[in-house]
Amino acid sequence: MSSTTQDGRLVLALLAVLLAVYAAPLTADTPVSRSRRKTPVMKMDEAVLSVISDVQTDMLLSVLSDHCYQCLPQPVGEVPAGPGPGVPTTVGFTVSTQHALTLQLNSTPANSELCRVHFHFGEHGNYSLWVKNPNDAPQANCTIVTESEPVNSYLPILFAFITFASFYVLAAVWNTITGLECVRNVLHHFSSTLEAERLINSELGTPSHSVETSTEVNIPATSGRRLRSLDTFRGLALVIMVFVNYGGGRYWFFRHESWNGLTVADLVFPWFVFIMGTSVSFSVSGALRRGARRSHLLWKICWRSLQLFLIGVFIINPNYCSGPLSWGSLRIPGVLQRLGFTYLVVAVMDVLVSRLQPTSTPTDTWWFAVHDVLLCWPVWLLVVVMETLCLCLTFLLPVPGCPRGYLGPGGIGDFGLYPNCTGGAAGYIDRWILGDKHIYQNPSSRVVYQTVVPYDPEGVLGSINSILMAFFGLQAGKILLHYAQQPRQIMTRFLIWGLILGIFSAIMTKCSTNHGYIPINKNLWSLSYVTTLSCFAFVVLLVMFYAVDVRKWWSGTPFIYPGMNSILVYVGHEVFEDYFPFSWKMANSQSHAEHLLQNLLATSIWVLISFILYKKRIFWKI
């Protein structure tokens, strides 16, 4: 036999030995290899949990989120029994990191609880759950060990805040410097020199129009004057709305709450409704003072409401993303639809009861302290009647298969007793009037409570509470009109209203998330939700009114620009959401940092667009 053949056989023999050595851990009955599975791939807001158990029985791992109220633990996966004493088995799982979790291990098929542990995992962390059962005790010992530290997913928010704050400080310093008389003289001299040289070297001659030096835009307002703090408040709500609609960096607190409670995303829409009510008070009062006929105003109100409704149905609708418009599954309710309906009711009521001039009431009358309320008592009476009807339907309407007055999320909530009762009477009325296919199919409650029926947060019954929210804003407008030259009175009454509504909310909710008579719930637009957000709105408007209109410490920049072009910004950001530069294919779609960068940049672009339109005096109104 040749030496070459012998060398070849030797090489093959060595390869066979090496293969046997490396293959042995994959087949040998060892603690690590026999039961270890492929490490799960971590996504955003997830961590890897390896369950290492020497229990001599099969187990079922279940998880219960602290965020899921009155829910049953949900099964995650099985952990097979250990192959023998002292030989553990290892199984890998992914777990959520948004909220603290309760892990529960039950033996199968006896379904007896072996251990339970409570822990809040960190994003992209690697953890081990060691399960030991010495001497076959009825309870096992469970210990969580951190194998690799999680990432700090909140650092991008801190960095973004520092960046925007730095830009704002630099802009404020620049405005202060350019506001000095000596600097203005230098800039004026420099600009005059450049303009002279341009005219000398240009063949166009003298410009045919004069350049205005003032940046203040006098927009024709129906009330005869424009409240900068109100535009600033509207712009603030709109900017937050655009940011959370674009994703909010995929942070859970920038998304709508699953059921009871509040997040940042739950603040903006009610504030928008509140501001709309305040604007109605100004516009109706101004139009009547200018001699407009009430019949003409009613026609304009109806036409504007119809426009809002049609834009919401045919332009800003989830269906158009799925191709041609499908009438069989067209969503009828929506944000603009609710705004249009609320505006219609509140504006019509105000037109019918408003006076041409605010009545001057003697300060010595017994009802002077509440005269701004009593002057529109018919509207108050009508609103109270509507709210009473809403509460009666909510708590007294019989809903098939559901307890009367049910306010829960259905699904796995309430220990899974009422899976098809999402929203109680509110959901039942929507499904009865509009049909299952014409309401929102993916409510936020589906994320945590795994609801199985469609539910629309902009449904029929919640629109009554939306009218109440707008009416509180209308009352704020009445205060601003009646005490136009008395800022102290305005701020005092705003503070009183905020205090009254805050106390009322505290009583209804018992200062808790889930245990009150009427919990705060954005999906239901519950009464406590309306009073709480109205309380916040009065306080925020008070602060802005004092800082922007009274003391003039702040010009309202940059929020005043989108606040004066709110319809254009809202419709535009919805229509162009998936187009560059508002969206692009990410290098790492599981990174909060890149999502936050994309969403902040898209929001900032809309602020820039509104600033350019402000400078060019382009304002889109309907």
Secondary structure layout plus pairing:
Elements: H1 3-27, E1 46-53, E2 59-65, E3 74-79, E4 89-96, E5 101-107, E6 113-119, E7 126-132, E8 141-148, H2 155-178, H3 181-201, H4 228-245, H5 268-289, H6 294-314, H7 335-353, H8 371-374, H9 377-396, H10 425-433, H11 445-449, H12 462-482, H13 487-509, H14 527-550, H15 560-563, H16 566-575, H17 592-615
Parallel strand pairs: 1-7
Antiparallel strand pairs: 1-4, 2-3, 2-5, 5-6, 7-8
Helix pairs in contact: 2-17, 4-5, 4-14, 4-16, 4-17, 5-7, 5-12, 6-7, 7-12, 9-12, 12-14, 13-14
Question: What does this entry look like structurally?
Answer:
By secondary structure, the protein is of the alpha+beta class. It has three domains: 46-148, Transthyretin/hydroxyisourate hydrolase domain (Immunoglobulin-like); 155-200; 228-311 and 327-351 and 370-615, no CATH class. It has 17 helices and eight strands. The chain has helices at 3-27, 155-178, 181-201, 228-245, 268-289, 294-314, 335-353, 371-374, 377-396, 425-433, 445-449, 462-482, 487-509, 527-550, 560-563, 566-575, 592-615, and strands at 46-53, 59-65, 74-79, 89-96, 101-107, 113-119, 126-132, 141-148. The strands form two sheets. A four-stranded mixed beta sheet has the order 4-1-7-8, with no helix packed on it. A four-stranded antiparallel beta sheet has the order 3-2-5-6, with no helix packed on it. The radius of gyration is 32 Å and the shape is globular. Residues 1-37 and 196-224 have low confidence and may be disordered.
